[in-house]
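Render tRNA pseudouridine synthase D in 3D.
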Amino acid sequence: MEKQELFKPLYALNHTPINAHFSKNSTDFVVRENPLYEFSGDGEHLILHIQKKDLTTPEALKILSEISGCRIREFGYAGLKDKEGMTVQYISLPRKFESNLANFSHEKLKILDSTYHNNKIRIGHLKGNNFFIRLKKVMPSDALKLENAIKKIDEIGFANYFGYQRFGKFGDNAKSGLEILKGEKKLKNPKMRDFLISAYQSELFNRWLSKRVEISKFSNEFEGLEIAQIYGFSKDEVKNLKSQKSFFKLLDGDVLGHYPFGKFFLCEDLKSECERFEKRDITSCGLIVGKRAYQSAGLARKFEDEIYQNSYEFENLMEGSRRFAWCYLKDVSFKYTPETAQFSFSFSLDKGSYATVVLEEILHRDIFEQE
């Protein structure tokens, strides 16, 4: 199958590409799930803290199902984890199957610990994930560039793009999603149908966010007259942009959300909302197009319409929502070992954000294109 040309969103930072070798394996890429709540230690559900390597979450559940006798649909989990690398997450299943796992052993899957809880774990029941990444073949000059890039992202935040995982091996998921909406392609599997449509929504989100990153970069780097000419902004609109301290610029009519979770609302008092944005109390929320999505207004709506206008005719075929556009790292640390030419770093992300997106912003290149 011919690989589609995937849309490449704009980077926020301005540094040149950094040379470093990244391999998504179980020693160089580790993901640890941060649960939404503490487990009670009592209840009808067994909570397994599992460690898997080179397995998808469904593959891990299949192994546990075959050993325990528990049906796949009775398992609960907060989110799907990558196949490549080592991942640690929580799984729930009915307590009655506990004895069947007493002598469990598997070369790619370990049960680290177990407890109990009153409820089944549901999709989304996590705060986020902690990531450990090791880069190899890193020269001292590139190590310094890595350190500076990580510090800058920690300072200003990052564009919360959807990662390559959403778009498929051949980059054609979004195209297939649009074909389904147009009635040109039919699928019997409803989950796959919804996933492909979500890829179409995700690509539109990435295109919109890339445009907003562009506006933010130009507002920081260009003179007011140049910005007005490029985007057709009025003097007041340019003034509003140039007065904002944050890298990412808010617009009148943006849909905002309390960060890292909370209700959506409309940006009607730009000055006061910018102050809250600088404190990381709120953030901008981009459109996942669909009939239930919270609607923007004014100048923000103008730029949404430029990206999304061709999708509006299919609006009633999609649920729609909003997604944080600008997010922040937590618990950042890094270390360079010149003797081995290895640079390792770790950070936490809120649920829904992609570590690979952060890594691409740091390296400024396709992370799977090795030197």
